[in-house]
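Weekly sync, protein design subgroup
Attendees: M.S., D.O., the rotation student, P.L. (late)

Item 1: inverse folding check
M.S. brought a backbone from last month's batch and wanted to see whether the design step gives back something sensible before we order anything. D.O. pointed out we never logged the input encoding, so this time it goes straight into the notes. Structure tokens as presented (333 positions):
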């Protein structure tokens, strides 16, 4: 067990990271096909090919999920994933060829690094080449490279977000896993203690945490352009579900966001959850939904705890240090 979404049979994960422009993409491959659903609750999502997940759509399975930085520009990376799968003969059979079904979602990370640096088709292809059913790198990697949280005052008082994963196995062989990219407008909460883990800071030069919800209650509102935040989740199970049931799992998994992000599902966020069913095991949809909520919440906390701020913003690892001291220690001068 890797304590990762790759514990689900048929799932591989690969990253491609641009550590100069500070962006990247992460692919979740399911080359044998997976029944998939989606639940979108944020108001600023950026997606491609998610119409294939609709109940009435002719497509019955997907072959990959792609998560990207770069806002809508990053959707280009999906072409690389499609090319990779086409070369392997993977996709929806249309007679003359097979068309890979690759639902894709993006985060806005253009403020963190070089706004001209976006995931490309080449990076999407490279992520597929790197994909494996193995331990998954977490933190500031792949689609999590440029992720930031706590952005009521834009980047200046935010902290580093990232990418995390988690899984759980039941005695009857049922498995549920999650992978998430955390780029939220709000703060990240420990759902056990109720304390803020990372998020809005009181000043630009400190790591003392503020509280976004309290600020909103005091009348401090964000008025500028809002499409700069999003949490993208993927949950997967080896249970056998219909589109309707796996979509219900995606809906229930949103509880993981609700328990760990505050506020969540705002007009500034494009929050969504994909769900994948890869197996033949019979299982109760409500139990799987509860487990999906659990692993997604755990993955969110892992994402920010493993993040690296690259000397640009403080991360969880810097929170017990003076931010300026941590910055001097990590950035050559």
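Designed sequence read out in the meeting:
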């Amino acid at each position: 067990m890797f304590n990762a979404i790759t514990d689900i049979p048929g799932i591989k994960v690969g990253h491609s990271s641009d550590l100069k422009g500070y962006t990247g993409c992460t692919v979740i491959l399911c080359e044998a096909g997976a029944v998939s659903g989606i639940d979108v609750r944020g108001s600023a999502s950026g997606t491609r090919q998610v119409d294939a997940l609709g109940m009435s759509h002719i497509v019955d399975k997907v072959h990959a999920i792609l998560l990207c930085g770069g806002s809508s520009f990053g959707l280009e990376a999906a072409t690389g994933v499609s090319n990779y799968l086409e070369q392997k003969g993977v996709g929806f059979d249309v007679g003359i060829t097979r068309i890979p079904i690759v639902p894709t979602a993006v985060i806005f990370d253009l403020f963190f690094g070089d706004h001209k640096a976006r995931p490309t088709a080449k990076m999407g292809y490279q992520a597929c080449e790197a994909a494996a059913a193995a331990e998954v790198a977490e933190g500031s990697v792949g689609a999590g490279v440029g992720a930031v949280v706590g952005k009521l005052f834009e980047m200046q008082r935010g902290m580093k977000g990232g990418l995390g994963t988690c899984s759980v196995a039941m005695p009857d062989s049922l498995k549920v896993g999650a992978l998430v990219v955390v780029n939220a407008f709000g703060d990240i909460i420990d759902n056990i203690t109720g304390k803020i883990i990372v998020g809005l800071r009181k000043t630009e030069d400190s790591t003392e945490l503020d509280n976004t919800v309290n600020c909103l209650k005091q009348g401090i509102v964000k008025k500028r352009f809002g499409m700069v935040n999003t949490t993208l989740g993927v949950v997967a199970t080896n249970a056998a579900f219909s589109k309707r049931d796996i979509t219900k799992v995606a809906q229930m998994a949103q509880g993981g966001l609700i328990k760990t992000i505050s506020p969540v599902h705002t007009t500034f966020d494009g929050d969504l959850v994909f769900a994948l069913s890869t197996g033949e095991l019979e299982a109760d949809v409500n139990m799987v939904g509860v487990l999906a909520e659990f692993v997604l919440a755990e993955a969110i906390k892992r994402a920010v705890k493993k993040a690296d701020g690259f000397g640009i913003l403080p991360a969880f690892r810097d929170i017990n240090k003076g931010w300026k001291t941590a910055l001097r220690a990590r950035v050559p001068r």
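Discussion: The domain at 5-330 is CATH 3.60.70.12 (L-amino peptidase D-ALA esterase/amidase). The chain is about 20% helix and 25% strand.
Action: P.L. to compare against the previous round before Friday.
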